[in-house]
Amino acid sequence: MEGFPEKGIKMGNMTIKDIAKKCGVGVSTVSRAMNNHPDINPKTKELIMKTIEEFNYVPNNSARNLKRIQSKAIAVLVKGIGNTFFSDIVSGLERECQKKNYSCILQHVEEQEDELDIALHIIKEKKLQGLIFLGGSFSHPKEKMEQLEVPYVLSTIRTAGENCEQYAAVSVDDFKESYKMTEYLLQLGHERIAILTAPKEDESIGKLRLMGYAQALKDKKIPVQEELIGYMDAKKDRYSFQTGYKLTKELLKKTDFTALYATSDTLAIGACRALKEAGISVPDECSVAGFDGMEAGEFYIPSITTIRQPVEKIAKATAELLFDMIKGKEVPRQLVFEGELLERESTAFSSCHESVK
Amino acid sequence: MEGFPEKGIKMGNMTIKDIAKKCGVGVSTVSRAMNNHPDINPKTKELIMKTIEEFNYVPNNSARNLKRIQSKAIAVLVKGIGNTFFSDIVSGLERECQKKNYSCILQHVEEQEDELDIALHIIKEKKLQGLIFLGGSFSHPKEKMEQLEVPYVLSTIRTAGENCEQYAAVSVDDFKESYKMTEYLLQLGHERIAILTAPKEDESIGKLRLMGYAQALKDKKIPVQEELIGYMDAKKDRYSFQTGYKLTKELLKKTDFTALYATSDTLAIGACRALKEAGISVPDECSVAGFDGMEAGEFYIPSITTIRQPVEKIAKATAELLFDMIKGKEVPRQLVFEGELLERESTAFSSCHESVK
């Protein structure tokens, strides 16, 4: 391209040479400015960056550096995208990728699909540099995990199976947080505490949360009763309003309880709806607690008592850990964040324990 | 690679030749099978596809056909990702991309960012073949729109400005649907109907929905009163629970009304919360209506009367239109889907019109 069109005119084919010429500097100076190299005069850098912006110049890396372009992509595999909790995480991850100039490919995984098969496929197809797994029960044989040839991080999931120490994971301590919530309900005087939980075969956060519930009961010498456990159906259910509604209806048919602990806020909201339809008032006749800290629970009537997961921190840490692993600066490790118990309107003292009030 | 490892052993470097050898066919037959070519014996195809699956073979297109890999990506630019309505659309779009073997890059646009600037940037950076715009007010000068060098579709948004006929768009008729909802509230006997709507400067669906509301009132000879309109703040607000809560609180301070029409379900849920805190019962003392048909509104207490947008159809049609435009089979056009008014618990006859009951 010869000469410079006036400002405002379409500039599709501006090259780095044109920018250098315009600024009266060499190409390498422009390159240093763009790559945040410290060895450059700040004023020169400012001029270059302003010129780049003014002419809408985008470095055509693909032509001169194919490898870099190909590799600047990661994928987020989301199982259970219907769970709005994940959309908060996804938007956080996406923002972090943007900062680092990585493409973030969002890949939906159906409930009955194997996320690892999909991962193996798209890593090759899309030449990915890294992967983030979000949602799903995530229990895969070690041999299969080893086929993943790029770094990956489990975000807000954790496998309860063996070898879990080998995988990079960022999450809360699901066992501990679940114990905390159950203990809180026990302190309110509830003894018949129903739980809505993952399918029986789950080896992930669902199992950990159920274990936390069971441990808290045991520590209070209260036996865990199978009839109070509403398991999801592995084939049909997921952490959704609809599932919470359905499982609560089923529990109400066969037993009674003064509190219900739903292991996600979506399940809790569905449960409240089922209780309302059964003429049971929340929290007067039955307390309901959730997990996650979704915004919807805050505005629900009654607002939902929950364990808030620090979504922004988890998303940021997940992306940073992955990028550091991609650069070889970090090995897989487990980062655990603290959840926060938020007491809201959906829980109250058990009416069987009026004296406690 | 020589020979074939046994099944189950890691097969990272399987080539199309290996698959052909394994199946006792030529390479072109394998290619026909993979590309769904009609000219192939069904049994042979089955054998090939089974073998491909068994050995986890992924065609290494990037090596032999760089152009194709580079071009198999589109981006979805989402403004207002906090709006959970969009996560349903995104997951629908993502599924359609998967079917067509396109990468779907999710790009978040901050409320104060210009989606067109971002679009111009990433089209070049990521060598995109197409774009989908989701959310935002979307009013840009024609000259700037023309800089977009790839096909694009506006999904669930529509510009109310001039030249709108030039852009491909898939949505409901926001004016008509909004008219429908307002008319429904009028039929319930409400005359003082407040509305929560987009910022005054909006030129997109917000304006269209406000116009539908105003027209329905005018057709009933009811003057539109500025004091009943809760405008978002363009700098701070978005279609969220929090905004609905805030705007309703503000309206309650300065006026009264028997119905409130929130132009999204998220706004409606926030509004219900503010009304509850003000001691106003929904729907007995104030009806609340939303827009979108989000699942959260169905499980809310009270469940939210709304206009359901056919999310799955819109997502599918958006993706199909875009892919057809990419292939040159289709020119930009506007597809309009019918919304559905869902009467739920949050609306009732105006108590000022007992006789109507």
Notes on the protein architecture:
Two copies of one chain form a homodimer. Chain A starts with 15 loop residues before the first helix and ends in a 15-residue tail after the last strand. With 357 residues, chain A is of the alpha/beta class. Chain A has three domains: 16-59, 434 Repressor (Amino-terminal Domain) (Orthogonal Bundle), CATH 1.10.260.40; 67-172 and 311-337, 3-Layer(aba) Sandwich (Rossmann fold); 174-309 and 341-356, Response regulator (Rossmann fold, 3-Layer(aba) Sandwich). In chain A, strand 1, helix 6 and strand 2 form a beta-alpha-beta unit. Helices cover 41% and strands 15% of the residues of chain A. The first copy, chain A, has helices spanning 16-23, 27-34, 42-54, 61-64, 66-71, 84-99, 115-126, 142-145, 174-187, 205-219, 241-254, 265-277, 295-299, 311-326; strands spanning 73-79, 103-109, 130-134, 152-155, 168-172, 193-197, 229-231, 259-262, 287-289, 306-308, 334-337, 340-342. Chain A has 14 helices and twelve strands. In chain A, the strands form three sheets. A six-stranded parallel sheet of chain A has the order 2-1-3-4-5-11, with helices on both faces. A four-stranded parallel sheet of chain A has the order 7-6-8-9, sandwiched between helices. The interface between A and B is large, with 53 and 51 residues.
Most extensive chain-chain interface:
A-B, 53 and 51 residues
- In oligomeric terms, what are we looking at? homodimer
- Biggest sheet of chain A, strands in spatial order? 2-1-3-4-5-11
User: Can you count the helices of chain A?
Assistant: 14
Q: Which class of the largest domain in chain A in CATH terms?
A: Alpha Beta
Average pLDDT reading of chain A: 85
CATH superfamily of the largest domain in chain A: Response regulator
